[in-house]
Amino acid sequence: MSELRLNPLKFLNEAGFEPTDLRKLPSDASQRTYHKFSSGKDRLILMDAPPSSNPKTPTFVDVTEHLLAADLVAPEVLRFDLDQGYLILRDLGKRTARDVLQSEPFREVEVYKEILNALLKVETLIIPDLPVLTNSTAGEMTTIAAISYADAPELGAEISALVEGYFEKYCDTERTLALRDFHVENVIWRDDQTSDRKVGLLDYQDAFYAPKGYDLISLLRDVRGRVSLETQGKMTALYKEHYDLTHDFDLQLHCLAIQRNLRILGVFGRLIREEGKARYLQFLSRTWELLMEDLAPPEFSELRDLVFEHFPKPTERLFASWEIKN
Fold first, then answer.
1. Over pLDDT 90: what percentage of the chain?
2. What is the mean pLDDT of the chain?
3. Mean pLDDT on 49-53
4. What pLDDT does 3 receive?
5. pLDDT tens by residue, 218-233
6. Nearest to 283 by CA among 296, 297, 271
7. For 96-99, which contacts have Cβ atoms below 8 Å and span 24 or more sequence positions?
8. Are 287 and 306 members of one domain?
9. Cα separation, 250 vs 282, whole angstroms
10. Facing residues of 39 across strands?
11. Are 116 and 160 contained in the same domain?
12. Which residue in 53, 130, 178, 238 has the most C-beta neighbors within 10 A?
């Protein structure tokens, strides 16, 4: 298939578009690339997702349809060819929620409250055939931390078993839809729209069903930036009030945060060391800081002790010892 794959410009031309200013956007951690272009008066995005490295593109299309049907804001898919791995999307805008928070930090509560409202609506959706984050899968997903960050693959099974046990003990059995990479860099902020249309959602091809709070933790315990403790508290209180949750739910949130940040340590370690994406070094200290905070409750002491003993802190000395591929 690869030798028959059209280049982006040829695909657009054959799809009936005449891009006047095709330009590549900065890359992220994925195996996809994006190009912005104009066609007539329309501002559009070309997602370039080669099928060999992007098997979840059909999920992106499916989830998009459900989000739009629920009157949530997502990039409308105008044309797609899954064999070629190209999608033409409506451009939601270029200003992310992160951009707003950096330029207007006084709007933090407003921005996070609007995103939380969208999240609560997402969690009501039922999308058939999406994977489910089981307790055992949650544990297995953390083994990458031992392998790609700590260079201690022999610890993978022990860490996995501990995380699985925490999920069994502290997470309820109900699962709700989680978009998974749910953070302010994946939210387009649309100030020119009414309140329920301000939040545009991106990057959800990895969506699955997870315990309540999975995306809330992704949003508030974001390794790419800091959310004030006041805002974290307000958003968590609103979330718990919405579902009429008890104080015990805090342990579920800790559990979800531990699982996510262990995995993030491993994924960023792999991206840095195996794919040469050194820009992810800047996030490791914050990931470590959040992991230590969420391991603090005595209920997680066994895993905390294991991490303290066998996981190196993210320091310049550690990074210098890593062999990073170019």
1. 85
2. 94
3. 91
4. 54
5. 999 999 989 999 999 9
6. 271
7. 96/184, 96/185, 96/186, 96/187, 96/188, 96/189, 97/184, 97/185, 97/187, 97/188, 97/189, 97/199, 98/184, 98/185, 98/187, 98/224, 98/225, 99/189
8. yes
9. 28
10. 42
11. yes
12. 178
User: Which of left, alpha, beta for 276 (phi over 0: left; psi -120 to 50: alpha)?
Assistant: left
Question: What's the token pair of residue 141?
Answer: 């997903």
315 and 166 inside one domain: yes
The number of folded domains in the chain is 2
**CATH code, domain carrying 299:** 3.90.1200.10
- Tracing tokens 């979800």 back to the chain, one arrives at 256
**What HEC string does the chain produce?**
CHHHCCCHHHHHHHCCCCCCCCEECCCCCCCCEEEEEEECCEEEEEEECCHHHCCCHHHHHHHHHHHHHCCCECCCEEEEECCCCEEEEECCCCCEHHHHHHHCHHHHHHHHHHHHHHHHHHCCCCCCCCCECCHHHHHHCCHHHHHHHCCCHHHHHHHHHHHHHHHHHHCCCCEEEECCCCCHHHEEECCCCCHHHCEEECCCCCCEEEECCHHHHHHHCCCCCCCCHHHHHHHHHHHHHHHCCCCCHHHHHHHHHHHHHHHHHHHHHHHHHHHCCHHHHHHHHHHHHHHHHHCCCHHHHHHHHHHHHHCCCCCHHHHHHCCCCC
Residue 1: the pLDDT is 41
Within 8 A by CB and 6+ apart from 149, the residues are 265, 266, 268, 269, 311
Contact 219, 112 (CB under 8 A): yes
pLDDT in tens, 104-159: 999 999 999 999 999 999 999 999 999 999 999 999 999 999 999 999 999 999 99
Is residue 195 domain-shared with residue 311, that is, in the same domain? yes
Tracing tokens 């209920």 back to the chain, one arrives at 299
